[in-house]
Amino acid sequence: MWSRSGGSLREFENKRVGMERNDLPKTVYIPEASVYDEQPSLVPPRDSAILQKAVTVFGYSPANLECVLRQFRDLGEIKEISYGKNWMDIKYEKEKCMLRALQMSSQIINGEMIGVAQKARNNMGIGRVEKSSLFIKQDHGLLGRIFTYLFG
């Protein structure tokens, strides 16, 4: 047995553990708005932009308008269409049709690549995709969390 002042190793460990328990604070304060409250989600939150059920289609020539419009009419019932020079806003009756239309982005129709973006509810004149809905926040590790907590 190991002994320094007449005690065994087990007695020494028990004393050390007892000291650690007494040294700990009784309550721990965790701020309400801490870095640990935020959890990355794989599914973007359902916001008012999805309730809009509208997309902006762009990148086609005026000669190709009918062909592009035919493709989007085949996806579902269209409630309203507004036109620009080489873009159009399409409002669908159902959210499922709008989601199918979003999948048509980067498709080549009659030799031209088109783009499709979800129309934001708060910005009716310009179709845009929210950056936060495309990417998951990257975890910067413990040091990054500390800097974020301290400096914002």
Concise summary:
This protein is of the alpha+beta class and 152 residues long. The chain is built from six helices and six strands; from the N terminus they run ααβαββαβββαα.
Task: Write structural notes for this entry.
By secondary structure, this protein is an alpha+beta fold. It has a domain at 52-125: Alpha-Beta Plaits, CATH 3.30.70.330. It is 34% helix and 16% strand. It has six helices and six strands, in the order ααβαββαβββαα. The strands form two sheets. A four-stranded antiparallel β-sheet has the order 2-3-1-6. Strands 4-5 form a two-stranded antiparallel ribbon. It is elongated and about 90 Å long.
Please outline the major beta sheet: 4 strands, antiparallel
Low-confidence stretches: none
Number of helices: 6
* Helix content estimate: 25-40%
The oligomeric state is: single chain
**What is the level-2 CATH architecture name of the domain at 52-125?**
2-Layer Sandwich
The CATH topology name of the domain at 52-125 reads: Alpha-Beta Plaits
Class of secondary structure makeup: alpha+beta
Q: What topology, given as strand order, has the largest sheet?
A: 2-3-1-6
| General form | elongated
Strand proportion, as a percent range, falls in 15-25%
**What is the level 1 CATH name of the domain at 52-125?**
Alpha Beta
CATH superfamily membership of the domain at 52-125, which one? RRM (RNA recognition motif) domain
Intertermini distance: 54 Å
- Report mean pLDDT, rounded to a whole number: 74
Q: Strand-and-helix sequence, N→C?
A: HHEHEEHEEEHH
Q: What is the strand tally?
A: 6
Write down the Rg.
29 Å
